[in-house]
Amino acid sequence: LERRAELLSRAPRNDPELLELTDALETLLADPPSLRRVTLDASPDRQAEARRLAAMEPVNPVADEADLRDRFDADRRVFVLVHDALGDLPANIVWVALRKGLPDGLADVLDPTAPSIDPHSADTAVFYSIWNVQPGLAGMGGGRELIELASAAIAAEFPGISTQVTLSPIPGFRRWLSAEGFAEGSPPGDLESLCARYLCAQSGGRPKDPVARFHMGNGARLLRVLSGADPSERGLSRAWGMMANYRYEPEDRAANRAALAVGSPAIGDEVRRLLPA
Description:
About 40% of the residues lie in helices and about 20% in strands. The protein contains eleven helices and ten strands. The strands form three sheets. Strands 1-2-3-4-5 form a five-stranded mixed beta sheet. Strands 6-10-9 form a three-stranded antiparallel beta sheet. α1 packs antiparallel against α2.
């Protein structure tokens, strides 16, 4: 894993050693992975792991102790994907908030001062961060399996949850706007429509945006685009504060993937209304 991570950082993708290591890891990880929940209410070793993973969080960095404890509260779930061949080493991680109603922005899921709710009263699970814990596994999948296993675990524990969505960044949006000829100094007027158009745009049969490519490639539906959802400096620099909800429904995933493969990404009614007729 360490050697493959090193090669990924500096070698071309067709490097013979990199290809050999990738093949070896794929063989090693051929057996189905499993899901493990991460909590602060556990053994000292497990608590240390939870804190280490929180300190590594690249998508929505943890600010302080109160923020950390909020992310492991009763209305949260944190899951890692593990493989027998890697012992207990987490491969990928997903962070989930259980709430009532769809989130309109990061403040809805990342406010440590907000009161915790009874998770059994929640109707929505929000996947607000997912990433590779092991850099040496980058590009080798695992995200789809993690989301599917986490989705099933949440549905089994909380049958009252009827909606499972992401709260996702749109990292390529401003670059795309620039390439389309829009000035960099201020956001265009019709930001939501432009964002919907960008997220549905494809290159080589796949969505242009890397996060859209991941979620829609895994069978999710682009449900909504959200203005002002991430007012942080990074959110503004990447997407003028725009974020997106992708909805995961088990019965729709295969059909959504098939539709995407023929150039028809699955979208919700709110997104459809934003697109040109």
